[in-house]
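Predict structure. Input: Aminoglycoside phosphotransferase domain-containing protein, 337 residues.
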Amino acid sequence: MRRLQLLKNWVETQFPNQSYIVQPASSDASFRRYFRILFNNINDKPLIVMDAPPQYENCTPFLSVAHLFSEAKVHVPAILAENLEQGFLVLSDLGNMTYLQALHDGNHDASDLYFDAIDALIKIQLASRAGVLPDYDKALLYKELNVFSEWFIAKHLQINLTSSQKGVLDLTFARILQQVLSQPKVFVHRDYHSRNLMVASPNPGIIDFQDAVYGPITYDLVSLFKDAYIRWDEERILDWTIRYWEKARKVGLPVASDFADFYRDLEWVGVQRHLKVLGIFARLYHRDGKNVYLKNMPLVMEYLRKTCERYRELHALLNLLDELDGIEADTKVGYTF
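Output follows.
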């Protein structure tokens, strides 16, 4: 309550002579919360206040990436006021309809939305240059993979790996890193999916980009097409991926010249992301008490298994996943007696 009062006090200093109400807009998987300012004067557009407690969140990357993406001519919130000491920002309002909501409502054509998302992503990638955003380097990629080991295997499944199983995981991680780090680099949003794309004009509105990095060119495509929150059949994913690849080649982005090689790059990056996401969802549940993400785990695991089935180098990981599944099942049966 104290935090909310601080926010309201600061907002009042920004709009001292205006009548308005402040209401919750959304929250995300971090400590950030968002509030909508609704003005009594109907001619005044609603605004968004980001609440990012400075002991947990740093607003500076958000401001930096907002500037970069705005320069790339994609639709991100405009920064209208800031208080970095208290962790508050006033932003333009991109609306309240995410891609995920629009697709579930069935009132929007999926391909139209995803074609717009592809076009926006290409604009971001064309604006890329080294030395501006943090590198998605070996250390960061490996740290994310370890979230899977620590939070999904050890905490969520409550399994202690044998030395042999650890060896399989270490070898697999090394192979994943080798593949991912060999790809050309661009600006990477890092969570470019249906919950962070808003149906807006121009479309899409892009949010939650503060963790952007300079990394593999296929990463955001995996986030978009192999989304943890909505399932698409593989035929449609292939069709959309081909559309991106053809457009990317045409404008000179550094994608593989052969589509089969490009799709392999995408799938290997996907393995890294799926492992990370499983770990993050487990951490959100066990550490932060957010159980809403548990229902999304089976789809992420399905993506991971299907990719492992397709590549011989990943069969050992698939076998390990089977072993872990068997151990978990045996443990659950044991609890019933």
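Residues 333-337 have pLDDT under 50 and may be disordered.
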